[in-house]
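Running co-folding for alpha-D-glucopyranose.
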Amino acid sequence: MDSVEPSGLQPGEGAPGCPQKGLLQPSDSSELVQECLQRFKVTRTQLQHIQASLLDSMEQALTGKASSAPGVQMLPTYVDSTPHGNEQGNFVVLELGASGASLRVLWVTLTGIKGQRVEPKSQEFVIPQEVVLGTGQQLFDFAARCLFEFLDAHSVRNQGLQLGFSFSFPCHQTGLDRSTLISWTKGFRCSGVEGQDVVQLLRDAIQRQGAYNIDVVAVVNDTVGTMMSCEPGVRPCEVGLIVDTGTNACYMEEARHVAVLDEDRGRTCVSVEWGSFSDDGALGPVLTTFDHALDHASLNPGAQRFEKMIGGLYLGELVRLVLAHLAEHRVLFGGYTSSALLSQGSILLEHVAEMEDPSTGAARVHAILQDLGLSPEASDAELVQRVCAAVCSRAAQLCAAALAAILSRLQRSREQQILQVAVATGGRVLEQHPRFYSILQETVKLLASECDVSFIPSVDGGGRGVAMVTAVAARLAAHRRLLEETLAPFRLSREQLAAVQTQMREAMAKGLRREASSLRMLPTYVRATPDGSERGDFLALDLGGTNFRVLLVRVAEGGVRIVNQVYAIPECVAQGSGQQLFDHIVDCIMDFQEKQGLRGQSLPLGFTFSFPCKQLGLDQGILLNWTKGFNASGCEGQDVVYLLREAIKRKQAVELNVVAIVNDTVGTMMSCGYEDPRCEMGLIVGTGTNACYMEELQNVAGVAGDSGHMCINMEWGAFGDDGSLGMLSTCFDVRVDQVSINPGKQRFEKMISGMYLGEIVRHILLHLTSLGVLFQGQQTQRLQTRDIFKTKFLSEIESDSLALRQVRAILEDLGLPLTSDDALIVLEVCQAVSRRAAQLCGAGVAAVVEKIRENRGLEELTVSVGVDGTLYKVHPHFASLVAATVRELAPRCMVTFLQSEDGSGKGAALVTAVACRLAQMAHV
Ligand code: BG6
Ligand code: GLC
Ligand code: GLC
């Protein structure tokens, strides 16, 4: 293609260098003209070099590892799909920065029906130069005033107006309505805006002006508006190109290639910001002294070098510099200049477009030049036209090289042989400059011959596209509001938590006095924590958590050694008959003894039985009611130790000496107490939740004795069963409760523990789906399945190290295919539910430690809490949230949380050991 007129690509490398003014000694004027025009010629090789270098710069920027050399910026726009065609509603669009120092307001109606268009209303306002170079506040106030003037003039009703903001400068977007200006371009330089969120600045200005209630829903670059204004057609319109005051393009990139997004599926629109491309190697040879002079005198020297060769703001200025140069060398205007010709900005894009048009007669060119105070000679018109053509042709070719780079990028990432794509175009240079447009198209064809490209001029100058994005953003914002409303009842205030603490204190006091209370405050007959002198081998059973375990615990001088084995309790056994359950337990013990070579030995046994029991002594516990999914018949109201002994008898094969029955909270406290004598409270947050602590014996009604202490099993899972938690209970808690095997019971536990949190989340997700906020409103069968959402998923999903894509993978494994937006919502739901659980738990702990402090009449209490339970241990934030709540609500207590490592079976053995030691002492 080595000489394509009128663009005039020349063979060979590089244009001749640009001699300095004054040194130039052309033999005659035509040689000078030739030399001058020659500088604007770009060879095909040079264009290919620019194309390749720009592609390279794009790919580097996508990886987020761009070198320090200023290149393109590849800014995510948070627009993830091209229009569906079903977007609808009325939107206000405010355009700033696309077309010079002007601002446009539009009223766009989207019908939601493909092909059906309503003409938008629009009005243009000129921004005064002192505002363009003034303060940010002046600029945004001006914008707000124009907006209101437009709305007044069109009698728009002031009702929930949704606005799309087309802001055409390089911005770091972090959402559809969050966008920080990186730097002004194109002659704007308002102070105090760079580094600020322009959406917020506009919102503030709208609020300052006051008259209308407008919600700024989305912010969009003009390239994106242009791409989105394209009617869905035969081929995908996945590129938006602007050549107006400035120049830029956007395109749909594979999301997985955009490193900053951490997204592995779908496509997302990236604004290339190619105006800032300035690779010396590629651009150096085509930059002329005129480009350098223009850059030097601009508001942003050194920046936007590529844009300054293409954008409409600069074409007139380049022409002016060339004409002045030729006049100074007596080649034009008889060697005369005028003050206008020597003044920056006197030749505008419109002048260039008109003069360059071959159909414009010499008379018109003369008239334009005369307006500039010049006295053109007869031959000048033709030369001026050639200068305009040279400057514009180069601009169109450079623009084509950049567009070709995007097409190569698309082709490479789509892995298509022939890429079929539509490019939406916009901007005054393209709209009013037929020659520019045709050179652009021709050159793209040559540089990207493997692509089948169609060019589609944008509708309404992109305003419609901005409205499209606004429609999507408005839908997302509505979803966010629904999400916030849904989660609001889970977000507890300090006052609410303090009220829980107070109610808990009152219920504790009543329970201890044997008055009606949802807290049973059960005496455990454990009066002391271990003193370290306990010795011997013990058996322990641990029933009621995730695992059923049999343990051999050796308490010796050097410490405690444990051998244990986990056995399954099938659901049919847990919910079958009591006889079946206890027979199964004894079978497991026999198996364990067999394996450990313990047959025939009658070791003392401690039984961790993690259900509410009314104890009459250390080895007698009447099961009050089952909790946590157990429901074996014939057990409630029975002594559990008796049931175990009966099962042993039935088997006749073992001899067991059941010494103590212990709740898991007590086992945990004892186990931690062996290491830390300050441990006077036990806490479980696992399948269920509960706490125990050392109470003054004198406060415990129904147990003889006035001095010393006794460990109280609070059974706080039942807190609120008298209706006192009603205010905090959400409709989701009610649903979870209603379908549980013990409706109305364990209301506090059902808001906190592992057995229920996943179910609460599942019910919220179902609700959000029914509102259309999740899964595009499609109810999935999987999500209807009870217990499908395990609490361990909350722990996994909320893990800080997990990327959103991994969250999605977890949910996809569950059979819930979702988008990134969905994944984010699920994450927020999990966070709200687990946070409330941890805070309620913290309020409970605060009530207990404060009670211990007051019991002892201390100003300050230092105490340790032994904790166990899968949720507490595995969840990434649960423990710290509990601790933070306790610090807040019980500031006079220094509470240390100790995680129990060996489960409460060890504690049961220690209770047994203490009992044996005391029994021996009594014997002696
Ligand atoms: C364990 C105890 O350490 O913690 C169990 O040994 C107890 O008896 C459990 O019930 C609580 O946690 P989870 O998560 O297993 O219910
Ligand atoms: C400038 C801006 C860019 C805009 C382009 C076209 O290059 O930085 O954001 O898209 O002009 O208006
Ligand atoms: C349930 C039981 C309680 C136990 C707790 C933790 O709330 O009723 O006894 O301590 O779960 O496992």
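Result summary
The pocket of alpha-D-glucopyranose (ligand 2) is lined by residues 98, 168-170, 185-186, 221-223, 242, 244, 246-248, 273, 275, 307 (CB under 6 Å).
The first helix runs from residue 29 to 38.
Job closed.
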